[in-house]
């Protein structure tokens, strides 16, 4: 009986030590530089990103590195849109999501448990009065997701990364 109790206590101790090691993972030099660059960009409020994937109800579509920026509370993007739309397009009007230095007021917080910054803001389209709500998640790894919604069309999600010069 004492051997079984000792075995159980030892097992719990080893499992606890293994869990503690996983929780305090040491960053590699590259991960550390990336995390520092992300933190610097977040503090500067100067984010330049590229979106490489459009995710919608029909699957993923590769993008050609479309550029998105949030600089000094001004948001710019020109992202293709695929999904259901409740807006009329006459002639050659494009239904892409476009903003050119649109003024935004950003609400942000840091999720310590999952390691990402979450920024939410609204912006108006450059060519009409359509209003979008955006949720931008910037992970310490440099990965970025952008969720965009509007009352005029279905939600769409983009995925990409930060443009970081080191």
Relevant terms:
globular, nine-stranded antiparallel sheet, 166 residues, single chain, 45% strand, 23% helix, alpha+beta
Structural class by SSE content: alpha+beta
Helix-strand string: HHEEEEEEEEE
Spans with pLDDT under 50 lasting ≥5 residues?
Answer: 1-23
- What gyration radius follows from the Cα positions, in whole Å? 21 Å
- Count, helices: 2
Shape: globular
Oligomer: single chain
Strand elements, count = 9
End-to-end Cα distance: 60 Å
Helical percentage = 10-25%
Q: Quick check: average pLDDT?
A: 76
Q: What's the main sheet like?
A: 9 strands, antiparallel
| Order of strands, widest sheet | 4-3-2-1-9-8-7-6-5
**Strand content bin:** over 45%
Secondary structure elements and pairings:
Elements: H1 2-23, H2 29-44, E1 46-56, E2 59-71, E3 74-79, E4 97-103, E5 107-111, E6 116-124, E7 131-139, E8 143-150, E9 156-162
Antiparallel strand pairs: 1-2, 1-9, 2-3, 3-4, 5-6, 6-7, 7-8, 8-9
Account of the 3D structure:
There is one protein chain. The chain is α+β, with helices and mostly antiparallel strands and 166 residues long. Helix content is 23%, strand content 45%. It has a nine-stranded antiparallel sheet with strand order 4-3-2-1-9-8-7-6-5. The longest helix is centred in the N-terminal third of the chain and has 22 residues. The chain is globular and about 50 Å long. 16% of the residues are buried.
Question: Short summary of the structure?
Answer:
Helices cover 23% and strands 45% of the residues. The chain starts with a helix and ends with a strand. It contains two helices and nine strands.
